[in-house]
């Protein structure tokens, strides 16, 4: 009996040690991705959040994928749109640099979601109620062999079909000029594109607009997206990158510039 009791006590003690080791491992696990834990020097002089997130202009985060939901409107004055700031730090983890930038921009906060740095307003926009259009959902999102630009056009179409107030610059120009712009989720001639420009995104379940934007940007990084309030209480979506596939080719520009 004594031996059995000793074995039970030993097993309990062993279990407690294992549980403690697991807890320590969880506690010491990196809070952010390996990219954000890298140390960097950062010198920013009189920039705003737009210039900061631009993948081609910010050396520190040039390899990062970033999304920015802004709290102002395209119709606001430049003074309301921008808050310029400067920062000079050395050998600091990128996540701490982001913390510092948000400290200088208290109207916003950041979080890492799906491997993307998302920068969001600290307070919800009263015009949209408690839920941002970016957090509204569609039943699923799936595209194959398509450019990021046309993936966003298809996302806009699905969002509108589900009464989500989002738009894109190209859609607005097409409406204004009375021309059709491809939002079918398919390229008419995918073989005419460089295969490296084409992406596949499959999300076979209910998903938010924000999550779809993150997935599109991650499919061909680095990239960044922006969402800005537009007329009629819509959010206009921008997706950009120095990478191919994020811009109109010559034929598409010609179609978009056509006036009937």
Give your account of this protein's structure.
This protein is α/β, with parallel strands linked by helices and 260 residues long. Helix content is 36%, strand content 27%. The protein contains nine helices and twelve strands. It has helices at 2-28, 34-37, 49-53, 78-81, 94-104, 148-161, 169-177, 209-219, 250-257; strands at 39-47, 66-73, 85-93, 108-113, 116-121, 137-138, 141-146, 166-167, 199-203, 207-208, 224-230, 234-240. It has a six-stranded mixed sheet, sandwiched between helices. A two-stranded antiparallel ribbon has the order 1-3. It has a two-stranded antiparallel sheet with strand order 6-10. A hairpin with a 2-residue loop joins strand 4 and strand 5 (116-121). The longest helix is centred in the first third of the chain and has 27 residues, at 2-28. It is globular, with a radius of gyration of 23 Å. Mean pLDDT is 83; it is low at 24-30.
């Amino acid at each position: 009996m004594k031996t059995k009791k000793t074995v039970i006590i030993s097993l309990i003690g062993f279990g407690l040690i294992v549980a403690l080791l697991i807890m320590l491992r969880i506690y010491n696990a990196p809070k952010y991705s390996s990219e954000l834990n890298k140390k960097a020097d950062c010198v920013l002089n009189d920039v705003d959040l737009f210039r900061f997130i631009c993948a081609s202009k910010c050396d520190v985060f040039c390899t990062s994928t970033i999304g920015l939901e802004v709290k102002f409107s395209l119709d606001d004055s430049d003074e309301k749109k921008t808050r310029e700031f400067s920062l000079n730090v050395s050998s600091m983890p990128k996540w701490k640099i982001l913390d510092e930038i948000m400290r200088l921009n208290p109207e916003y906060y950041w979080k890492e979601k799906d491997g993307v740095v998302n920068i969001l307003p600290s307070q919800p926009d009263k015009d949209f109620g408690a839920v941002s259009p970016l957090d509204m959902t569609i039943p699923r999102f799936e595209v194959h062999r398509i450019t990021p630009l046309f993936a966003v056009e298809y996302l806009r179409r699905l969002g509108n079909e589900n009464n989500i107030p989002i738009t894109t610059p190209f859609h607005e120009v097409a409406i204004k000029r009375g021309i059709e712009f491809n939002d079918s989720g398919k390229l008419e001639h995918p073989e005419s594109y460089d295969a490296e420009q084409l992406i596949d995104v499959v999300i076979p379940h209910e998903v938010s607009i924000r999550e779809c934007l993150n997935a599109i940007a991650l499919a061909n990084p680095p990239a960044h997206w922006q969402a800005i309030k537009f007329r009629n209480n819509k959010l206009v979506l921008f997706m950009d990158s120095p990478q191919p596939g994020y811009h109109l080719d010559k034929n598409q520009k010609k179609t978009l510039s056509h006036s009937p």
